[in-house]
Design a protein that fits this description.
alpha+beta; MetI-like fold; 2 domains; elongated
């Protein structure tokens, strides 16, 4: 049994961190998500190719295997992949690729490769992983146009992951603002806000998303479509958080510290921002963390159905559009790899949210 005296002099943040560290899965998930966001932020450097670069010699080519030992049994310190040998099946007319030991493509790290525009700020040509000029590297295979799936997944991570963060940030603003007004002011304003929330929550989510997404003009730029999807998703997601904030405000607005602040002449804005919100900020952060995967899944679903983000934008949902045909899935299952990353990110955010939820009550874990 832990001694409570060891924790009485620790700050709330320190206690929260100690509690969070006990959740090993949450720590691993947090590290995994930080790694993915780092890759997404510098996707031009980590991707071997630009997302729309094509290799006409490799259409629907399978993933290449990394080797250190060649067919002769010789060990190589530098990893390499074998090139493709293409044959056409005379009966099914299906492309069939095999490894060609005569084509050895060495893999280089932090070396010069295809030129790119880093964040559209300056030109660069160094990549984390690349091959020599005239050679190719397709760790996750290629699609119907010969585009590298590995590079497109890395570029798609920037869109899908950032959309979740920005969308939840907008959801937080709407939920905290509207829910706070309803809970603190009460009366007719509270009743009106609750009726609006009930109407929005009664509408099936997916059809509403599809209807709003279909209303986005087709001539809008990719950036305009990107932010319109964020607004559409946030327009639906804020209702749940608003009700949570309203309930907390109703429970806290008559507490002694709030009454004391009101008697001392504090303004309503100061009471809300300096006294009410900090008292359950950890709960808001936890709710936001758990809402991010929902936002990512929503974008993936809309883009998969063709009413969300559209090419030339590269997101995980857009990449999964090619996997709608079951024949494509049977013949080229590597096109489903973007969906694996969606699953991993959703699981990681849920595990991280569980850890943050446990850490929100740091004193609860020291009773046994």
């Amino acid at each position: 049994m832990a001694n409570p005296e060891l924790f009485k002099d620790l700050s709330s943040r320190r206690l929260t961190w100690l509690r969070f560290k006990r959740h090993k899965l949450a720590l691993v998930s947090g590290g995994f998500l930080i790694f993915l966001y780092f890759i997404a932020a510098f996707c031009e450097f980590f991707a071997p190719y630009e997302p729309n670069w094509r290799n006409p010699k490799a259409i629907f080519a399978p993933p290449q295997e990394i080797h250190f030992i060649d067919n002769q049994g010789d060990f190589h310190f530098r990893p390499f992949v074998y090139g493709y040998s293409l044959t056409i099946n005379p009966e099914t007319w299906v492309r069939e690729y095999t490894q060609d030991p005569q084509q050895t493509h060495s893999i280089y790290f932090f070396a010069k490769g295809q030129k790119y525009q880093f964040w559209n700020l300056f030109s660069a040509e160094h990549h984390f992983i690349t091959t020599a000029s005239g050679q190719y590297l397709h760790l996750f295979g290629t699609d119907k146009l010969g585009r590298d799936i590995f590079s497109r997944i890395i570029y798609g991570a920037r869109i899908s992951l950032s959309l979740g963060l920005i969308g939840v940030a907008l959801t937080l603003v709407l939920g905290v603002l509207i829910g706070g007004i309803a809970g603190y002011v009460g009366g007719r304003i509270d009743n009106l806000i609750q009726r609006i929330i009930e109407v929005l929550q009664s509408i099936p989510t997916l059809p509403l998303w599809m209807a709003l997404s279909a209303a986005v003009p087709v001539h809008w730029s990719p950036l305009g479509v990107y932010f319109s999807i964020i607004v559409i998703l946030s327009f639906i997601q804020w209702t749940g958080l608003a009700r949570v904030v309203r309930g907390r405000f109703l429970a806290l607005r008559e507490e002694d510290f709030v009454v004391a602040a009101r008697l001392l002449g504090a303004s309503q804005l100061r009471i809300i921002t300096r006294h009410l919100l900090p008292s359950f900020m950890s709960h808001i952060i936890t709710t936001a963390t758990l809402a991010i995967p929902g936002m990512i899944l929503a974008e993936t679903a809309l883009s998969f159905l063709g009413v969300g983000l559209r090419a030339p934008v590269v997101s995980w949902g857009v990449l999964l559009q090619q996997a709608q045909n079951f024949q494509v899935i049977v013949l080229t299952p590597w096109l489903l790899l973007p969906g694996i990353f969606v699953i991993l990110v959703v699981i990681a955010f849920n595990l991280l949210g569980d850890g943050l939820r446990d850490a929100a009550d740091p004193y609860g874990g020291h009773q046994s």
